Amino acid sequence: MNSTVLVALSDAAICRLICDILTNKGFEVIVATSGQEAVDIIKRQEPDVLLVDHEPGGESERLLAYVKSRGENLPVILVTGVDVEAPEEIASRMGALSFVRCPVDRCQLEEAVRQGGMVRDLLLREKRTQRSLTLSRSFLGAFLDTGDEAAFLLDSRYALLEVNRAGAHLLNGRIEDLVLQKYLSRLSSLSRSIQEDALEKAKATGQPQQREEYSGGAVFITQVRPVYTEAVLAGFVVVTRDITAQRQSEVGLAESEKRYRSVYEAARDAIIMVDRNDGAILDCNAAGRQLYGYPVEVMLDLTIRDLSAEPERTMESIRSGAEHIPLQYHCRAGGVTFPVEVSMSHFVHDGREVCTVFIQDISQRKVAEEALREGARLYRAVVEDQTELICRYNPDGELTFINGAYAKFFGVDEDEIVGQKYFPTLAGSERRDLKSWIHEAGPDRPVFDREQYVERSDGEPRWVLWTNRAVLDQRGDIIEVQAVGRDVTDRKEAENALDRATAEKEQYRLNLEATFRSIPDAIVTVDSELRVIATNSAAGGLLSLDREIAQGRDFRELIGDSGHPCLGVLKQVLRTSKSVRGYEADLDVPTLGQRMVELNCTPLVDQNKQHIGAVLVVRDVSRIADLEKRLHERHGFRGIIGRSSMMQDIYKLLEQLSSLDSIVLILGESGTGKELIAEALHYGGSRAGAPLVKVNCSALSENLLESELFGHVRGAFTGAVRDKVGRIQAAQGGTLFLDEIGDISPLIQLKLLRFLEQKEYERVGESKTHTADVRIIAATNVNLLRAVKMGTFREDLYYRLNVMPIFLPPLRERQADIPLLVEHFLEIFSGQFNKTFEKVSDAVLDLFMGYSWPGNVRELRHILEHACILSPGSEIGINHMRKDLTDQMRNGFYPYGEGADVPLSSPSGMQLTVGRGSATSQPPSARKVGKQDILEALTRCGGNKAKAARQLGIHRATLYRKLDAWDFEA
């Protein structure tokens, strides 16, 4: 099929000539009279070749730019004039495949168009091939990840070509990093030996190989299948599957079989397995043989018909798949019949339909039922003559019986109410209490009393005391409840009257006690017009009131301050006639200065219970308030800065641990101040006079770390020209701080474990044992429990170190400490740079409060240090900070890669993992906080602005500024 050619030439004569030539040669020609028309044609249908003239700066260049922007595989042929120089370079520069000069050469034109059509075909085939390859690779990746098995595709030299996610996890690497690596080099020594043997045998024999291996208590099966291309070995498919659960299931199945047989034979009821088709007995337990009186060999020759007094009914029930026959009669070996209750379970075993028949002899139960019916008749005769209200109900609350007194009291009919629910007649709290008792009732709590407010059948309200008694079976389980009700209305009314009288007397007593209890404090009594009735001597000191002058005068004149808190409290009590308790206020006392006082004000009541004034008690609580403030606002501890509740808990823990020699494990993200904690523990304890020796375990190689810790003797290794004192010996009598303990090698872990348990060690190259009196403090930001599970950290060393863990919270979890830390660092940098830094601007503090601080306190210090270097002093503004950091903080971007986890441990030992960049949500300040956000936060926090600012992630000053701008009062 010839190609379709789109001709977009500005010269109409040349366009007609080219169209005639191409049409005569069998090409399909489409003509575009303008560049826009050509664009529309390309969008509507895809031509094979485009002919366009060379028109610098004209529509042809814009058309070529459009074709290039679409990424179309459309070959372009450039039509140039005869006087155009270097047409090849022009065509190449404009992205054309070739060119044709005018006047047009028919052969050259035909050859160029056919060449363009072939190029178009090649490009389309290449695109389809690429799409097919991409699809095949996607299918291959999806196929490899379909199951839980670890799958690997190897070339003939055992290099990895493909690996699925399970395989990458097994090799402890990423898929993109594992490709083209040697497969065997990624395995452990044992696995490498086993699988190398399988690969070699598969290569030699051309047959699939299978191997089992045991690792860490798990069982793995590996299948190796060679892949050939035209009888040439191309590579291998290796699939590794964890069959631990399968092996455990096989062992468990055997154990279950033993337990089943044990339970089967030990069952107290008869169990018989029969064929559902003919009723033949296939098996019988000991209880069945004893019940029917047949030996085992005779029993297995019988059918279920031989045991049943109703053989046809029995076989019909078995064949129909019935599961229960409540009553049936069977025959013993001597011909004696007895009643039984039969339960059946049907299943298929080895293609044979089998029925398991459970048979219970109910002879004794039938006798008991008859006796029970006789007892019920006697019980009913007794309760019908009682005047108390009596009813019974089951644990579900369904009434099973009421006596005549109950029916008469409530005006109900026994036949209609029995079977109805009893609980809905109770109030909500009564129903909950009764159901709770029924749930707990038993031999230890058989009775439950409650009072209920009810209406009699004539509409009169009455109080009834119900005594609920549980009826229990032989196992102590409740089967029914009997409730006996007694009318206690008269007693209840007398109790209520007594309670009212007692409450009135108690009110008088409390008023009197309140007055005398407050005598050591300032007391002022005023009438309803605020005239002073009396004061005590303490009022002269706190309120500057002279007892003799004050009496009878207006309290407002004596105070002389309309905003005085005492005056405000008195006015409120006189206006509302309600007491004010525990109102705290600041008073400026001339003789004592600024004092914190507690105001208690009570209405003054006369003998007729009329409010005739108020009693004000003023207590000086300045010292208590100061002590509480100091207790709750400890800003730091031995160089550690923070006053949040989490830091207060850490301070208390450090005070407890400082005087002890227990091993302490400090856990926390990088930059949270683990080294400061170690220094606080050392210098706050009895070893403060001895050295504190620090070792960064991650900065030293295995051999160097061993030498640094334990020391070495001359000649222990190359370069050991003299004896060296180890860090343990250098810390004798003091503290050894092992930083980044999670990065030490297994060999050092083993030697360190021996030292921790026995406080003994040997220097490198020496067999003599030394002892050391050293306290150990370790720190890490590694999830040690995960490292234990991965086998990179010894479990016994982990539990030896994890005696007393201290978890340092990240800065994002103690935002309240950020202003305090900022103030602390500004003070440090003021002295360091000989400048005076007073504060940071509100915009900077808002940015700090909303940022998640992946680098914690260390990151905060570095950011402030940079800003202090650029700032001339006084206030640190947003312009003094690095722009890339401010952008990062506003956008909530973390400089760490996604998925980088920081393993932590809480004080209780619970393992935590904090993801950087993905596990935390976007900081609140990363988006603009609007008016609606602030109003909703204030509503949630009950108008507490400080709490609302913390929830929104902005500074409290910013919240106040926004509220002032909106003229909002909360």
Query: Count the helices. How many?
Result: 37
The tally of strands reads 38
Query: Strands of the largest sheet, in order across it?
Result: 2-1-3-4-5
Helix content: 40-55%
Q: Could you say which structural class the secondary elements and strand pairing correspond to?
A: alpha+beta
Contiguous low-pLDDT stretches (5 residues minimum) are 894-927
In what range is the share of β-strand residues? 15-25%
Largest sheet: 5 strands, parallel
Whole-Å distance between the termini?
A: 82 Å
Quick check: average pLDDT? 82
> Compute the gyration radius: what is it?
47 Å
Overall, the morphology is extended
Secondary structure elements and pairings:
Elements: E1 4-8, H1 12-24, E2 28-31, H2 35-44, E3 49-53, H3 59-70, E4 76-80, H4 87-93, E5 98-101, H5 106-144, E6 150-155, E7 160-163, H6 165-170, H7 175-178, H8 189-205, E8 209-215, E9 218-229, E10 232-242, H9 244-266, E11 270-275, E12 281-284, H10 286-292, H11 296-299, H12 304-307, H13 311-320, E13 324-331, E14 337-349, E15 352-361, H14 363-383, E16 389-393, E17 399-402, H15 404-410, H16 414-417, H17 428-440, E18 447-455, E19 461-472, E20 478-487, H18 489-517, E21 522-527, E22 532-535, H19 538-543, H20 547-550, H21 555-559, H22 565-576, E23 580-589, E24 593-605, E25 611-620, H23 622-632, E26 636-637, E27 640-641, H24 645-658, E28 664-667, H25 674-683, E29 692-696, H26 702-710, H27 727-730, E30 735-739, H28 746-758, E31 760-762, E32 769-771, E33 775-780, H29 784-790, H30 795-801, E34 804-807, H31 818-833, E35 837-840, H32 842-850, H33 856-870, E36 874-876, H34 883-891, E37 901-905, E38 911-915, H35 931-940, H36 945-952, H37 956-965
Helix pairs in contact: 2-3, 24-25, 28-30, 31-33, 35-36, 36-37
